[in-house]
Design goal:
394 residues; alpha+beta; Butyryl-Coa Dehydrogenase, subunit A, domain 1; 3 domains; 7-stranded mixed sheet; 7 strands
Amino acid sequence: MSPPTASTASRTALAAEAIAGVLREHALESEQLRQLAPASVEAMKQAGLWRILTAASLGGSEAGLRAHVDSLFVTAAADPAAGWVQMVSNAHTWMVGNFPEECQQEVFGDDPDICVPGTLASQGKATRVDGGWRINGRWQFASGVDHGDWLLIGAIADTLPESPTRLLHVIVPKSDLVVDDTWFTLGLRGTGSKDLVADDVFVPEHRSVPTKLLFDGESPHGEGGETFFNRLPVLACLSVQLAAAVIGIADGALALHIERTSARREVYTGSSKAENPGAQMRVAESTTELDLARHLIRAAADRCDEVASTGNRLTVDERAEIKWHAAYAVELARRATDRVFASAGAHGIYDDSVLQSRYRDVNTACHHAIVDFDGNAQMYGRTRLGLDPGTPLV
């Protein structure tokens, strides 16, 4: 098997660029609705952006991580909510490919262009019963929940002798759970990342997989694709995808700042803001930080695609490095955005300022646990010093 080619990634990015105007046009609507605008959802479907990581055997593109990353740079720059929901849903549709065949057919049926919202954190409880599980609890941060019929969620099992962590992931119809609208936040408002509530919901055995197998890419059900993409570790790959979305948001913020600064005048002197050396230095530093962030994430995505083409495994040290590079890329994106927003002037503070919205979105996205700066730095530092990573899930 060969890894996805650069032309595959380019085609996916071009498909995203073709609808970027639509996403940009509806970004404010998404924020006001507190869910992704319907026109954006449909445009992304027509562009094939919901099926990028879905197995070809299920009707998906199976285009690879680099293709997804390059498209996220585009969609998140146009509308952060669109990029974020695309990132989450594609990560989840990819993971569905590691569930039993019966579950895969239930979820995808005849339509590979679906969204699979949910949350990977094991926030609920699962109790073993005849034929499956009973789940109870509340799950936060179900991004894009308004646009999917199936959900992927994690739970702590009462008994799971085949797994040392007792963590379980299940697929459930959205109709079985209650969506609680708690999504009133600083940023990423258009993602609609609401809570999910389950009250004694039955989940058949074929819609469950132990988290350790799922996250390590060792599920016996993940061999249906044209590549070995399902053998890749989830957390490392998810961190790469999330970082790409954050970089895209920061790219959009920088572009807005440059456009506005080029036309601004100093309030008291009337001189060109673009002629100000401080303004020039801020743009230079932020531009280079985002260039470096993109380089780190593209290199990580390419490495994952290379491994997926061979059936080999990423080593623990490689996984730790990829997660750290993703966390560092997110930090670079945050710094780049903070720097230019600090010089945006008083008009940048108003609610109708798009730059203010992007500033809020970037700083909200940085709070995701997968790219926790301190935790990932410690993990990577441990492996560089010859120690174990300090966590069972890398």
